[in-house]
Amino acid sequence: MGRLIDRAVEHLGDAWRNLTDAKFEVMETESNPHLVNIVAPTEVVIFITYERKRGSAAATMSMCIPFNAIESVLGKLA
Q1: Residue 78: pLDDT above 70?
Q2: With contact defined as beta carbons under 8 Å apart, do 49 and 58 qualify?
Q3: With b meaning 16 or more CB within 10 Å and e meaning fewer, what string describes 29-62?
Q4: Total H helices, total E strands in the chain
Q5: For residue 51, what are the β-bridge partners?
Q6: Side-chain half-sphere CA neighbours of 56 within 13 A
Q7: Considering the chain, what percentage of its residues have pLDDT values greater than 70?
Q8: Closest alpha carbon to 38 in 12, 3, 67, 73
Q9: Across the strands, what pairs with 63?
Q10: Phi/psi of residue 8, each to 5°?
Q11: DSSP states along 4-20
Q12: What whole-number distance in Å separates Cα of residue 74 and Cα of residue 69?
């Protein structure tokens, strides 16, 4: 699972390279979503969920990005 996450972070950096010089890294992982406390409940976030399939195996990964983390590149996204 660690290798999969490392590759996902690497590809995430590649995808954002044209917008900003961002460095992505995994700081913590949590398998129980009820225990995750990334930002305050009133904070605006971008929440991305995607499914990875390989053969008959599938896994879902979610990513939560605080809006203020991408606000500076928002004009480049439109």
Answers
A1: no
A2: no
A3: eeeeeeeeeeeeeeeebeeeeeeeeeeeeeeeee
A4: 3, 2
A5: 60
A6: 0
A7: 97
A8: 67
A9: 48
A10: -65, -40
A11: HHHHHHHHHHHHHTTT-
A12: 10
Over pLDDT 90: what percentage of the chain? Answer: 1
Residue with tokens 């950096």: 13
* Side chain identity at residue 61, one-letter code: M
Which tens digit of pLDDT belongs to each residue from 18-52?
888 888 888 877 778 777 777 788 889 888 888 88
H or E element that contains 68: helix 67-70
pTM: 0.60
User: What are the structure tokens assigned to 78, written together?
Assistant: 């439109």
Q: Which tokens in the block code for residue 1?
A: 């699972």
More confident residue, 31 or 10: 10
Q: Which residue has the tokens 């979610």?
A: 62
Average pLDDT score over residue span 64-72? 84
